[in-house]
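ok here's the first one, seq then struct tokens
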Amino acid sequence: MIKNSIPWPNGARCAVSFTLDMDAESLLYLSYPDKAHQMVATASQLRYGPNVAVPRILDTYKHYGIKQTFFVPGWCAERYPYALEAMIKEGHEVSGHGWLHEHPNELADDEERFWFEHSIASVQKITGEKPAGWRAPLYNFSHRSTELLIEAGIQYDASLMGDDVPYLIESRNGSLLELPSHWGMDDWPAFMHNSEFGFQMPIQAPSVAWQNWWDEFEAAWQYGGLWVPVWHPFLSGRLARWHQTHLMIGKMMEKGGVWFAPMRDIAKHVQRCIVDGSWSPRTERYGILDDLPEVPNIGKRPTDSTRAHHVSQPRAA
């Protein structure tokens, strides 16, 4: 079912990278900058991530001897340096995730550049390592993001949903490796319930949510895919939920044929495969208007010329 599967290391059937976005209260201060300090219950929910969940998550990774990836906003890096220091000490990857979880596709050109550069610098200041990758907050990758990431020397992006395996995003100034996931691998729909953010979906039992993600894993294992959950410590790091993850990792290892790796290592492997010719990526272009068919204003009655362009012109083979 995957026509362009990657030869994973040591004959592995699939690659697995648990990615945790440690957003903490950045979400609260972005939405309510003037009164976030008054919203104590929500702050306590979000602080659970760096203060309780992250140590628990690191213990599980240490138990199984695996290295994984955290994406952290720059504001959170500076507010919770001890959490990042613990991640780095255990050999895990910490990469960029905006500054205050701002949405790049809602910013002006200079604003996106400023906050992107500021966020990367903040993470590097705490970890001592330049982030290898980046994930746009709330997947809100902009039409400028590809060029900014390439210019900054970022090795990969993890914001988009365009395939089951890595692919390349083409830009005017080069190409960027995409390590995709999708909303079905996100824990927000399963677990997030908070009136302050206007998101009050029914909370799933951990066993139900993890069965969904296990189904995704089985398919990735069967067809050579990339399995990348997009989780948050304050959600998936809760006791019963992380208990399920601890068991899931053991079950994956018992199944065998799984390459557990941080995203930076997956990116390096994919790039090596491209260079040595053992795998050729599919490419996409986003945010570029060149070569698009004319986009009519649907609210207006089409003119004869517009009608002719969209109805009569044969489509190229």
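and now the second one, same deal
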Amino acid sequence: MGELPPGPPDDGAAPPPDSLPPGPADTPDWWSTGSRGHERDDAVAWGVPSTSEPRWQAVLAIVVAIGLQVVLPERVIQGLGPRWLIPALEGVLLVALLFTIPRRQGRGESVLRALALTLIAVVTAANLVALGELIRALLEHSAAGGRALVFASVPIWLTNVIVFGLWYWELDRGGVAARLRPAHRRPDFLFPQMTVPGSSPGWAPQFLDYLYVSFTNATAFSPTDTMPLTPWAKLLMMLQSLASLLTVALVISRAVNILN
């Protein structure tokens, strides 16, 4: 018969390190390594600082929003004064914004941010007034101008998508300039690239990413692949979904009445 294996020591001493089972530090962590073995950048979950924030995309979106407001029929802009007033005010703010864009980080950022928020707020307020006038006109049962009101809902809905994309872009993680710094505040939106290990090393959201979030929220009436994390982000997405839902529901009902 073979000899029995030695039993545990009687003096209470701990077993040698080599005989210990592997602990958490010795086992591979899926969240620390990607599916192909790439190490995950832990800063991704917090939001990697942007290397650059091109503003021309947002400027182009504002120009499109101003153009959409210009083509609205007179019936939905009655509460905005003369037709030229709001587009002229938005144009002046946009020109001031372009002249205030700092050539380098740290110069004129507070003035630039104040002008940007003011411009976005003016576009938002004008679109909300137009949406209110559209809803009031759609609820009237007169057949006159029904088709014009249905067509007017398209630029209002598109402006809704643009303006909320601007809000998301301007407020996430403290603003455009704050996202360029490593010490920015916590993210307000959780993008898919921030959750999949090793998918997009060094990725940071740009304006088109926020515009996409706004579009999907307006079409699905709820978040899709990007989740809001902070109270203000959730509130803004709720307001956008409500405005989009009212527009689509009332326009569809009025269109059905016109077809009948």
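notes on #2: Residues 17-42 have pLDDT under 50 and may be disordered. The chain is about 50% helix and 0% strand.
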